[in-house]
Structures are given as structure tokens and as C-alpha cells.
Amino acid sequence: MVVANWKMNNSPEQSRQLCSSILSKMSATDKEVILAPSHLCLSTVVESTGDSIIKVAAQNCHQELSGAFTGEVSASMLADLGLDYVILGHSERRLYNAEDNDLLAKKVISVLSQGLKVIYCCGETLEQRSSGAHLTRITKQLTEGLFHLPVKDLKNIVIGYEPIWAVGTGVTATSIQAQEMHAHIRSVVSNKYGDVIANQISILYGGSCTPSNAKELFVQKDVDGGLIGGASLNADDFIAIINA
Ligand code: 13P
């Protein structure tokens, strides 16, 4: 699974052009390819991807389904557009919008209630890694944000591991660091939901993933794909990552 997180980039017209460029360059693949444009560009991207194999995700949504929440977008509105996924808990939203695990736990319920799937992001700061607190930090994010779900919901959850020190910095986790954390995430899921669920869940790596390092990361046993920021804004780079 490869997810393009375009963040706050691309106008509707630029999104349309990037979509058509990706579609024209993409060869047949058995991988799941997902584009996550800004809310403003979602309908353009849904329309541009049409009945292709590309799926569409939102980058966030509100925890309530409707109401007096100026400037917000609900999961029911996103479901209406025909989306497949919503990304929740990205480190940029945790940092700039003060989203914590308790709020994310509510958003997860709201998204699943509308028949959408969740890409739930977790990640540690450099300070937490340096002090050896990285594994417990991720366990806490998973436990508080996801583990209120009944087992039947886990088939609609994808986990994104994005070390904050690697997001947008040009510094990538080594394949050893990524594998260690992904194996940890799988074992934490297994402790709560059992081996079958843990082996089925997709765990994606995100953080300065590029065509030149994607393969080395993706061959790791517990790395099931990538969440791509900067490199997904260029069709050739994004295609190269899908092919990796
Ligand atoms: P970069 O690939 O730009 O580091 O961003 C990763 C990311 O945040 C994907 O969600």
C-alpha cells in the first residue's frame, strides 16, 4: 500500500494535473495506491481517478458528524464524496492542532461509523528516541487512540509509523530502525487482538521516503508500504516509489 499525502499543497487544477500524470504513468499493480489531497481538492481527485484502481483519502476530519463547528468537515461528508480512507493523527495535526490520543479515539469511531477506513499515524520525537522512550511512546499512541475498538473494526485500520524526526527533514529512518518499530507495533497489536489480526494489519512507513530509499524500507518483513509526503508531489518519484 502506498499513500500520497499531499498535505497543504496543490490547487484543484494542480491536483487534477498531478492525478492525470500519475494515472498515465502508472503500470498495472496489485498494490493499493491512495491519494490524499486537501479537503478542497477531494472532489476533483475523486472525479479524476474515476474508476481507476487509485483510492482517495482525506487528511483529517472532525469527530462529530454534523453541527456548529465552523470550518470543519465531518466523516459523513467525506463518505458522501465516495472516499475510502481518512488519515488521522498525523504528527503535523498532533503538533499544530493539538490533537491528542483521546480526541483521535473519538475521530476513529466517527470515521468507522461512516464505512470509511482509518490510516492511524503514530511516531516519536528525536528526543524520545534518544532517551529510549520511543517504543513506549508508540505503544501509548496505539493503546489510547485505537485499542478501544472491538476486534471486528481492525480490518478497517491501517497503521502509519512516521518518526517525527524523519518527516519532511530529508533524514530517513534506517531500514533496521523501521523494521524494529514495525515489529514492535505488530507485537503490540498482537498482544491486544491476537496474531491473526496482527499479521493482517498493514503498517506503513512515512518520513522522507524517496525513490532511492523506498525499496530498502519496503523489503523489511513488517513494512507493508509507505506514506509519502514530499516525493508524492512529483508523479515520476511517486510512481518510482510504487514500483519499489
Ligand atoms: P515526507 O515524505 O515529506 O517526509 O512526509 C511524510 C509524511 O508526513 C507522510 O504523511
Main CATH class: Alpha Beta
Small molecules in complex: 1,3-dihydroxyacetonephosphate
Number of helices: 11
CATH evolutionary superfamily: Aldolase class I
Secondary structure: number of strands: 8
Characterise the protein shown here.
- The protein is of the alpha/beta class and 244 residues long.
- The protein has a single domain (2-243), classed as TIM Barrel (Alpha-Beta Barrel).
- Helix content is 43%, strand content 14%.
- It has helices spanning 12-25, 42-49, 75-80, 91-96, 101-113, 126-130, 134-146, 175-193, 195-200, 214-218, 235-243; strands spanning 2-5, 33-36, 55-58, 85-88, 117-122, 157-161, 202-206, 226-228.
- The protein has an 8-stranded parallel beta barrel, surrounded by 5 helices.
- Strand 1, helix 1 (12-25) and strand 2 (33-36) form a beta-alpha-beta unit.
- The termini are close together.
- 42% of the residues are buried.
- The mean pLDDT is 97.
- The chain binds 1,3-dihydroxyacetonephosphate (13P).
- 1,3-dihydroxyacetonephosphate is lined by residues 5, 90, 162, 167-168, 206-209, 227-231.
- Residues 5, 90, 162, 167-168, 206-209, 227-231 line the site of 1,3-dihydroxyacetonephosphate.
Summarize the structure.
The protein has 11 helices and 8 strands. With 244 residues, it is an alpha/beta fold. The protein has one domain (2-243): TIM Barrel (Alpha-Beta Barrel).
Topology:
Blueprint (H helix, E strand, L loop, with lengths): L1 E4 L6 H14 L7 E4 L5 H8 L5 E4 L16 H6 L4 E4 L2 H6 L4 H13 L3 E6 L3 H5 L3 H13 L10 E5 L13 H19 L1 H6 L1 E5 L7 H5 L7 E3 L6 H9 L1
Parallel strand pairs: 1-2, 1-8, 2-3, 3-4, 4-5, 5-6, 6-7, 7-8
Bound molecules: 1,3-dihydroxyacetonephosphate.
